[in-house]
Design goal:
The protein has a 4-stranded antiparallel sheet, with helices on both faces. Helix content is 41%, strand content 18%. Strand 2 and strand 3 form a beta hairpin. The protein is built from 5 helices and 4 strands. Helix 1 crosses helix 2. By secondary structure, the protein is an alpha+beta fold.
Length: 154
């Protein structure tokens, strides 16, 4: 796309199917690296990623506008699901829940969001995923129907 320029920063958040705690610390880094590779292959740049046991945060620079965010999320979910299942990191079948959150930030917020994503382990000692996600929706003034949110059990 000649003469098309962008500077968009997005944080994606999505959960494991049934909010199962299937992403364990012994293979979390491998999953994160694989997902970063998916983004790189789509000419996107991951700034920070953290795979919690039951959900993931991916903060990236959205620079290839030829792939839409819904397409990108679908590709990431499909390809990472296949990778996780092929690697047999755990007993059973892995999958992501339907849906996701996508939240935009300005360039001045990059370091703050990066720190937030990378400190997820400490963050969730104080705040549940449900609380965190609802606060993001409220902060960004996103209207939602509770019945269409992730499956929350906490």
């Amino acid at each position: 796309m000649p003469n098309t320029y962008s500077q968009i920063y997005i944080q994606l958040v999505f959960a494991t199917k049934g909010r199962e705690t299937t992403i364990h610390s012994n293979f979390r880094n491998e999953i994160e690296k694989y997902i970063c590779g998916i983004f790189n292959n789509k000419n996107q740049k991951v700034i920070a990623i953290y795979a919690n046991p039951d959900h993931i945060h991916i903060f990236f620079s959205y620079k290839n506008l030829t792939v839409s965010i819904p397409e990108l999320v679908k590709i990431v979910k499909v390809e990472s699901t296949k990778f996780i299942n092929d690697k047999t990191f755990f007993m059973g079948k892995f999958s992501w829940q339907e849906g996701y959150g996508a939240f935009s930030y300005s360039k001045s917020q990059i370091e703050t969001v990066k720190k937030y994503v990378l400190s997820q382990e400490e963050h969730h000692k104080k705040k549940s995923f449900r609380t965190e996600y609802l606060q993001l929706l409220e902060k960004f003034e996103i209207e939602f129907k509770p019945e269409y949110l992730f499956e929350f059990y906490d």
